[in-house]
Amino acid sequence: MLRLTPVVRNLIMINVLIFVGSFLAGKLTPLVDIGGCFGPFSHPVDIISAYLSLYGPHTDCFRPYQLFTYMFMHGGISHIFFNMLTLAFMGPILESYWGTKRFTIFYLITGVGAGIFNIFVSQVLHIGSFGVMVGASGAIYGLLTAFGMLFPNMEIQLLIPPIPIKAKYLVLLLGGLSFLMDPSGNTAHFAHLGGVIFGFFIITAWRRQGN
Fold this sequence. Notes:
Strand 3 (155-157) and strand 4 form a beta hairpin. The protein has a single domain, classed as Up-down Bundle (Rhomboid-like fold), CATH 1.20.1540.10. The chain has a two-stranded antiparallel sheet. Strands 3-4 form a two-stranded antiparallel ribbon. The protein has eight helices and four strands. By secondary structure, it is mostly helical. The chain crosses the membrane at residues 7-25, 67-91, 103-121, 127-151, 163-181, 187-206. Keywords: Hydrolase, Membrane, Protease, Transmembrane, Transmembrane helix. One of its GO terms (biological process) is proteolysis.
C-alpha cells in the first residue's frame, strides 16, 4: 500500500481537482476559441485550459504565470494517471529523504525549467514545433533523474513490461527515449529532457554544497 507524504498528496489532489474541473468546464460551459494559440493543434478549449495551459511566447495567449500552472494541467486520463502514479511511487521516498521544503523546491524548479527548456529548443534553436504544453511530465522526469542519482541501484517494478529495473537504467532509458522521439508531434518530448537536465544540475549543485 502506498504511503503518501504531505506534499505528494497535495500535488496529486491539486492535479486531479484541476483535471476534473477542466473536464466539467468543457461539458457545462461554452468552449473558448483561442484562435491560433495552439499552433497546428488549434481548437476550442474549456475556460480552465485556456488560462492555465502554456502557450508559445510568440502567441498572444502566452502569460509568464503559465510556466507554473501548465504542470497542473493534463491532456487525458492516461496522461494524468501515469504521471500521478510515478509521483506516488517515487515522490514519498524523495520527500522523506529531502524533507518537505527541498522536495517542493526541486519539483517546482524542474517543472518550470522543463517549460523554459522546451520553449528555448523550439523558439530559439527552431527544433520541432510549439503548440501548447500541459502536464507534470517535466517535473516527473526531474524526480526520476533525482531518484536515479540518489538511489541508482534500487529496483523499480515496471507496469509495462512487468519487470524490475534498476533506477539508474530507467532514467537513462526514459531520458534517451525523450531525446530520440520525434519532437514535431503533440508531445513535448524536449520538456521531458528539460526536466532531466534541470534535475541533474540541481542534484549536482546540492552535492557540491555537501547536502
